[in-house]
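Standup notes
- DV: blocked on the single-chain target, sequence here:
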Amino acid sequence: MAEAHQAVGFQFTVRPDGVDLRLSQEVIKNIYLSGVTAWKKRAIQFKNGVLAGVYPASPSSWLIVVIAMMSSLYIRIDPSLGMIDAIKDNLPRDCMSVQTRAVLSAILFATGLWLFLIYLLRYTLKALLSYHGWIFESHGKMSTSTKVWLVRILVKMFSGRRPLLYSFQASLPRLPVPSLDDTIQRYLDSVRPLLDSDQYDQMEILANDFKDSKAAQLQRYLMLKSWWATNYVSDWWEEYIYLRGRSPIMVNSNFYIMDLLYVTPTHRQAARAGNVVHAMLKYRRKLERGEHAPVMALGTVPMCSSQMERMFNTTRIPGIETGQQLFRSAKFNIVQHLTDRKHLVVYHKGRFFQVWLYTGGRHLLPSELETQFQRILNDTSEPQPGELKLAALTAGNRVPWARARIKYFGQGVNRVSLDAIESAAFFLTLDDEPQGYDPAKTDSLDSYAKSLLHGNCYDRWFDKSFTLISYPNGKMGINAEHSWADAPIVGHMWEYVLATDCFQLGYTEEGHCKGDVNKGLPHPTRLQWQIQKECQGVIETSYRSAKQIADDVDFHAYLFSDFGKGLIKKCRTSPDAFIQLALQLAQFRDQGVFCLTYESSMTRMFRDGRTETVRSCTSEAVAFVRAMEDTSATRLGLFRKAADTHQNMYRLAMTGSGIDRHLFCLYIVSKYLGVDSPFLKKVLSEPWKLSTSQTPQQQLNLVDITKFPKYVGAGGGFGPVADDGYGVSYIIVGENLITFHISCKFSSADTDSCRFSQNIQKAMLDIQGLFKAENDKKMVELGTHVQLENGKKHI
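- DV (later): unblocked, structure below
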């Protein structure tokens, strides 16, 4: 009852002699501190907003310009070429003295000049960032133009103050619209190895007919959008690829990220969750204030940070719109982003709890969060009717969930409880089955991956921007919704959280969070539900649908430790190209045919950029794979040629000259205009039987993995894209480890995740063997040469 009394700010009793008013000093104090914290937060956000808004200049530079203009009044030099006098003449004379008008006109002119200089600097920086010649140059070589560009951009970016997270947003260039001829030709080149002569001729006819008839009109509209919008792809990509989808997002869209591979800082579930949640709150505070350093490619070129804005306090809301009404106005899925949310919702054994994250105007300390989570773990109450599998609604088909949300969760306690979930900072599941990597169990990573990807289909809120999952053995993980951002964004936050958890916050010798235990905190609050029988039937239907999807996922994750990035780079080739060609070789050995292959590339060097597709199955890759199967003597040369082609395609995708986003946007414009294009229909209907992605690590470099080699993550993965294909996520960990996350479906007789992983491993070793054989040959030749030279000297 003590908590209930503390929750009351004041009490009053009506007496015959008046009203007896009693205030709770503790609550009033907390209210006061919360208000002070809120005003401090607004002030810091305003300050950082100004700093980012005027970057690369600084507010103090305005004062310098004003002083310079004011000085001109006394030395009788007019640097404004008469503009100060013109401003002075237009100021009111009756209420200002001559001196006042002179000073004010100088300040106004100085302010205008300062703003002009800011925009000049910003557009100069944008022009410099539009240069991408550096990315196409060979490793270790740099042209004169790139050296000049590098010097200029370094001077522009680092001669001023330290940039904030959003300092470069206004200076990032817009994503360019590629030329029609280039896109269509690159597309035809990409499908040439996958089609026979007749099929290719037919595709070429469709492409040429499209280019000669409808393409120019669609391209003009696309150019118009690129001039008007900050990015001609991203809003349509989010809407039509993610939000208009009707199928379940569990497995089909959401992805996961694992915990540290070898290290578990504590085996106490509540303590680990306390530290991790506190680290997330620290990250969120820096994010809201824009205090994170911007991500830089090669430490020089800034990446777009706009996706980070919706990391917290974000939920995907289902809509009832159907595919047949794709381009009509109605209720669609939306991404709801709120600000300043001060609670999270915790799921444990079928119960939902609301936990406040602030007290007295500050974040809860790790020890306080541990106490709250332990209280939930100790709670023995039973789920309410329909509560156990309620989250299955977010795992099943979107339309039934949208209708149920309107019908059963639109009012009363259900509305209040659902609002608590959807407005929470994020969602936390305290799981009751241990997971994690165990070298003694060959399938430990498989079980861990499936738990993160879909769990029991009702113990993750798949609509939240991310669900944090805590296991009884102290392991953690994340299931992330995909529409609001891509995997590197969540990975950026997760790297910060793990480094903060292990190297800043730490634990006591007993494994608890450090700090005093505050037992006076109000207990977590159970969310209340009144779920009707009819609604329980909808929940059960969604659960069965989701469970069928989950049970069909064939997943295998494994660690490739024979060699890693270090050895590959010694072979003077790109690690990504090496792995992609190994995947092509493994795919051919596994299926006996080549297939359309998707590799995700980022376009964040442009404003609001997200991803582009690299079509990895090239003619050069096919020639290399066939040579490997024929044991041709030209295998190594063909590998180098295929790797160079892949690298060039990846660079084109990164610099806005990809194929698929351009064609996708042309298709969207054609649908808006009611223009029928057999070519675009054919392109957009092609299945990606091999979908691949590399998740970057060490974005923040907070942990020196050469000193702490055990503090590395296992990366993450996603579900299969095609019913009869594979999904492969790979993570290059340090110099000597590569992790693979492979998914497919049990319902397909043609695929097997374990078999495919074996083919990948063999392909990696076979390609490495080519370089080893070449190196051995050089050593033999060198030895023979030395022997000949020694023989000549002896003679």
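- Follow-up: Confidence is low (pLDDT under 50) at residues 1-10, 322-330.
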